[in-house]
Write a structure and sequence with these properties.
The protein is of the alpha+beta class and 96 residues long. Helix content is 44%, strand content 18%. The protein has one domain (5-95). The chain has a two-stranded antiparallel sheet with strand order 1-2. The chain has a two-stranded antiparallel sheet with strand order 3-4.
Length: 96
């Protein structure tokens, strides 16, 4: 449901106007934060993973594939923007 809720609300429109406005604001927040992350990763070899879908949706996270040699160059600017590392493994860094 989380992947289709925004599309559903856009379809039923007026019936659930308050919920639609809330979900639209969540979508705008997600997209603003995505743009901030993309700006922070300028010059880093990366790709957004599972980002493009056939419908707009509000995600709970942003999956990014980063070339292993660029991980430090990716983490540092994100930390400077307030993200923090909550888990670090050999092939995965989770930030919030």
């Amino acid at each position: 449901m989380n992947k289709l809720y925004l599309a559903y609300l856009r379809h039923v429109g007026e019936v659930l106007r308050d919920e639609l406005e809330l979900e639209e604001s969540r979508f705008k927040w997600f997209m603003r934060n995505t743009l901030e992350v993309v700006r922070a990763l300028k010059g880093v070899d990366y790709a957004l993973y599972k980002f493009r879908r056939p419908v707009d949706y509000v995600s709970v996270d942003l999956d990014i594939l980063v070339n292993a040699r660029d991980i430090p160059r990716a983490v540092k600017p994100l930390q400077e923007r307030g993200f923090r590392v909550i888990a670090s493994e050999p092939y995965t860094v989770t930030m919030e």
